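seq as requested:
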Amino acid sequence: MRWWYRQDLGFQTAPEGNDLLPGGRILTSGMDIKIRTAVMADLPVIADFNVRLARESEDLALETARVEAGVKALLTDPAKGIYYVAEVAGAVAGQLMITYEWSDWRNGNIWWIQSVYVKPEFRRAGVFRALFHHLESLAKTQKDVCTLRLYMHAENTRARQSYERLGMRRTKYEVFELDVRKDGGRP
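struct tokens:
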């Protein structure tokens, strides 16, 4: 799927086979960004991005083999979630993953946005915005999806600003956790 931008319409998807619609330009950055569902061949880059994400956002060193196994588990079982990747000139420039939570209060699914990563050279160029708008468009076509949510490291002000610019708002919820694995869930 290709995204294009026109001042009066904002971000839109272009029909297959059309690189640019009349009166529009490819994204605000001028890049042609293709959003697609990740496939098994993307496993190495997704795992690498996840390792980088943990290092950048939490100064956490993840075990690559464990991350690769986790990515493979999701790619082979759609019930766990789905990855979307953004390609620029045929190379993966960014990613996000969604997982699902059923809300009995809303009688609908909450899509949790996770594992958001954009390669440094593509940041602030519309890659995450294209991924987000793709996900938002998909969610609006699903009758059982009621909310998009994400959590982020509390000190990640740049991410917070990006999410707010996209219309997301901070909630009153806080996240608690308890590691139940014998190894404490350590990476």
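Residues 1-11, 15-28 have pLDDT under 50 and may be disordered.
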